[in-house]
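Follow-up to my post from last week.
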Amino acid sequence: MKNKLRELRAAREWSQSDLADRLGVSRQTVNAIETEKYDPSLPLAFKAARLFKLRIEDIFDDKAE
Amino acid sequence: MDPNRKTYCWSAAAGLATYALGVIVMYFDMHPVTTKQILTVITFPLCLAVFVSAGINLKLKRPPERKYYWRMLAGFAGYALGLVALNYFDGEHMPHRRWLVILPVLPTIYLVTVIMSCVSNLDEMKRKIVVEAMAFAGLATGFTSFSYLFLRDMGAPEFRPEWALYILWAWYWVGLFFSWRRYR
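User reply:
Got it. Predicted complex:
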């Protein structure tokens, strides 16, 4: 799934570990999401949306359109 | 050297030493080791080595990991005590002797609950990797065990139940490798 996690993280100058700590997951999970190898669960997507104060669809794109 | 790295090095060295010592002790204790016992000699000290190694770097682990370490250790200690008690009480004239098998089985049920609890508390991607590996291992073990029956009919030795555990472990690591590669 396409996502803007890397851009959003870079804009805040956070490392993958920083973001992982804020989301309560491992750094490997953040890396796998950013490289589009792993699709996050719905609770994790909501957590990311709350963290960046955005809607889920503003961060994740399911290529449906 | 970084103190954490030093601790990991010590724990790895202690684990290897424990394993080597365990294999040597078991080999000479069970001498002459038959082909049926060789897997026990190779794998049993591995459990001990993992506990020794993990125990040394325990302070570097997160609190939930420490909790699971102690629970797993308690489960394995219960299992070992259960086996000792089973051998102690088991006798030809013992009434209902088959019920004694519950002694080591109860700790293994506890161990299963600890493992499931540990897996369900893993980070979500790691959980997915582990669950995929477990599913692969379960299916592959079933098919391997069943396929072995054809080999047995061609003259291979009778399938021993303990082989299933070793096969399960082997397939689990294969599954873990491929699943981990997919999300790496």
